[in-house]
Amino acid sequence: MATTAKIAKNERRKELVARYAQRRAELKRVIAHPSTDPDARAAAVSALAKLPRDSSATRVRNRDAADGRPRGHLRKFGLSRVRVRQMAHDGQLPGVRKSSW
């Protein structure tokens, strides 16, 4: 299980990403547009660099919803591989059965 500090830090990152998402998208659109003059592009690049580092979506870590495990995350369930296996064996995941042949 992950420490509560790591889980809380990741939640703060999610909030920052949501807060700055629109501003980041506008700046990236200006940078990527081919008809933008070089001065405006340079200003957009510097403004993007001045935004908080944790406001980038790539800084958010996918974690297990139950205990915060950062590795082996399965998006379909929102859980780690360990938790998915455990819950599937206990019959707590609807429609999931252990295969055998």
User: How many domains make up the 3D coordinates?
Assistant: 2
Radius of gyration: 20 Å
**What's the CATH class label of the largest domain?**
Mainly Alpha
Task: Note the run of SSEs as H and E.
Answer: HHEEH
Task: Please describe the biggest sheet, giving its number of strands, its sense, and whether it closes into a barrel.
Answer: 2 strands, antiparallel
Shape designation: elongated
What is the straight-line distance between the termini? 33 Å
Give a structural overview.
It is a single chain. With 101 residues, this protein is mostly helical. The chain folds into two domains: 1-61, Helix Hairpins (Orthogonal Bundle); 63-95, no CATH class. It is built from three helices and two strands. The chain has helices at residues 4-32, 38-50, 81-90; strands spanning 73-74, 79-80. Helix 1 (4-32) runs antiparallel to helix 2 (38-50). The model has no long low-confidence stretch (mean pLDDT 94).
Name its key features.
single chain, 101 residues, mainly alpha, Helix Hairpins, 2 domains, two-stranded antiparallel ribbon, 2 strands, elongated, rRNA binding, ribonucleoprotein, Ribosomal_uS14_bac/plastid
Topology:
Layout: H1 4-32, H2 38-50, E1 73-74, E2 79-80, H3 81-90
Antiparallel strand pairs: 1-2
Helix pairs in contact: 1-2
